[in-house]
Design a protein that fits this description.
The chain is of the alpha+beta class and 269 residues long. The chain has a domain of 127 residues. It is built from 9 helices and 9 strands. Helix 1 crosses helix 9 and helix 6 packs across helix 7.
């Protein structure tokens, strides 16, 4: 992910989190104001460098809280968006032709700009509250509605259709199933067809994505179902050792969107 390959890929980070109970919760607890990809990156670096995980901020950010980064501390490397201008017409236009114009574009780069609380010092104490999560508020923000569960197959736990979800009244883990179905919607899996969690079709990647989002949310919220989610993910991976990077990025983004909609996670990269 960096030029020197100092950190794991998004897929490797997610794979490690899936196989390490409590890692997502630890990352979220310490770094919930940041994206999940960056939270896991920060946690990985803290563990490897034997730094106590904790609230994260830039050098200037800590100064605003009247705390100073200790001399000699090396910043943590996170992924951040950078906006730049792209000249669409490189040559000077001939008379009567369209003027050159610029287009704003965005790319992502890795920078060592962040420090955890344990790398700072100061007389002013710092505490960071973790906000509550409201499932109903998340559904409203995401424009997802609940619909009556009408599947007659007793093995079906839930389904998602367009921007509607339904969960069986006898679902073994109703909250995890709810998050799984919400994930299908947020990930764009339900734009054209009813998506039932029992249909035998080539949907392994979609199931891995949705259940990985549910796993992230369950662990972050301290809800039951993480172990069941891990088993479900392994079933749909069909022996693959790693979740594809593209899917991992979609998973992190969807989980971030769901938790933010319910009142969790901040605006940091």
């Amino acid at each position: 992910m960096t030029n020197k390959q100092e950190h794991a890929t998004w897929g490797e980070l997610l794979h490690s989190a899936v196989h390490t109970p409590g890692k997502l919760l630890a990352a979220y607890t310490a770094f919930h104001n940041y994206s999940f990809g960056n939270a896991l990156l920060a946690l990985e670096q803290c563990i490897s460098r034997k730094i106590e995980p904790g609230p994260l901020n830039s050098y200037k950010g800590w100064l605003a809280f009247k705390r100073q980064v200790r001399k000699g501390e090396k910043g943590l490397c996170l992924c951040m968006p950078v906006t730049y201008k792209k000249r669409l017409t490189s040559d000077a236009p001939a008379e009567g032709t369209e003027e050159p114009r610029d287009e704003m574009r965005q790319c992502f780069v890795f920078r060592n700009y962040w420090f955890v609380l344990a790398q700072t010092e100061g007389e002013t104490p710092y505490e960071q509250a973790i906000p509550d999560f409201d499932l109903d508020a998340a559904l409203q923000t995401l424009n997802i509605t609940r619909t009556p569960f009408d599947e007659i197959n007793g093995n079906v736990q839930g389904f998602a259709h367009l921007r509607e979800i339904a969960v069986s009244p006898i679902a073994e883990l109703p909250l995890k199933t709810t998050l799984h179905e919400i994930a299908h919607v947020v990930l764009g899996h339900t734009t054209s067809q009813k998506f039932v969690d029992l249909e035998h079709m080539d949907r392994n990647i979609r199931e891995v994505e949705a259940e990985s989002v549910a796993l992230i949310c369950c662990e972050s919220l301290g809800l039951p179902g993480a172990d069941a989610a891990r088993g479900y993910i392994q079933h749909w991976l069909h022996g693959e050792k790693e979740i594809p990077n593209q899917s991992a990025m979609r998973i992190f983004s969807a989980a971030q969107k769901i938790l933010k909609a319910g009142g969790l996670t901040g605006e940091n990269p």
